[in-house]
């Protein structure tokens, strides 16, 4: 069964406010996105956690990359709701709703790490043929050097990450 073409792509930076590579790229592409635009596609660079970026800290109240679970996304918005939970709900509204046909097709979530792992792609589903083929393409065509792919099929993380809003989530880590 053929899948519909990928038409909407989100590029996230700043999920963790102290990981500046993605922040700088997103800001660059927000000012001049010509290099990421493609005919027939919408590519949206997006700063995910602006308050944490402003403070240059991982997060303000809680890790944004852990609150895209159903409980957090469905939580009533009250005055004392953690900032990142409220932000997750906003991101889900813009790029989702998660699990729906209206969700963005693909989200690249750009991170930094202090681990000596080089550029690494993170996948969350070994049965997502599109993502596997895309990672294969990236590894062969765009990153002929060392570019490991890490599969994380952990039930609690798989559905709670920022990128999990999309039909095809991919994380990119760089040290």
UniProtKB/TrEMBL annotation:
Q: Which gene encodes it?
A: Aspa_1
Which segments constitute the Succinylglutamate desuccinylase/Aspartoacylase catalytic domain? 6-169
May I have one GO cellular component term?
Answer: cytosol
UniProt lists the family membership as follows: Belongs to the AspA/AstE family. Aspartoacylase subfamily.
Kindly provide the name given to this protein in its UniProt entry. ACY2 Aspartoacylase
Q: Which GO terms describe its molecular function?
A: hydrolase activity, acting on carbon-nitrogen (but not peptide) bonds, in linear amides; hydrolase activity, acting on ester bonds; metal ion binding
**Keywords, alphabetical:** Cytoplasm, Hydrolase, Metal-binding, Zinc
Predominant cellular place of this UniProt entry's protein: cytoplasm
Name the PANTHER family for this protein: ASPARTOACYLASE (PTHR15162:SF9)
Q: Give yes or no: UniProt keyword Lyase.
A: no
Q: Does Metal-binding count among this protein's keywords?
A: yes
Q: Where in the cell is it found?
A: Cytoplasm
Q: Which organism is it from?
A: Cephalopterus ornatus (Amazonian umbrellabird)
User: What does the record list as coiled-coil region(s)?
Assistant: none
User: Which Gene3D superfamilies does the protein's record reference?
Assistant: Zn peptidases
- What does the record give as cofactor? Zn(2+)
């Amino acid at each position: 069964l053929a899948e519909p073409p990928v038409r909407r792509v989100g590029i996230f930076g700043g999920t963790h406010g102290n990981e500046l590579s993605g922040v700088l790229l997103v800001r660059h592409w927000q000012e001049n996105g010509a290099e990421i635009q493609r005919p027939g596609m919408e590519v949206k660079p997006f700063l995910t956690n602006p308050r944490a970026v402003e403070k240059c800290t991982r997060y303000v109240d809680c890790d944004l990359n852990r609150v895209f679970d159903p409980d957090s996304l469905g939580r009533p918005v009250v005055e004392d709701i953690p900032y990142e939970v409220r932000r997750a709900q906003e991101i889900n509204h813009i790029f989702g709703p998660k699990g729906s046909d209206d969700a963005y097709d693909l989200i690249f979530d750009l991170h930094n790490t202090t681990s000596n792992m080089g550029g690494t792609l993170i996948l969350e589903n070994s049965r997502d043929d599109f993502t596997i083929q895309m990672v294969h393409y990236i590894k062969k065509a765009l990153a002929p050097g060392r570019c490991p792919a890490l599969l994380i099929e952990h039930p609690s993380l798989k559905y709670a990450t920022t990128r999990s809003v999309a039909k095809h989530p991919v994380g990119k880590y760089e040290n």
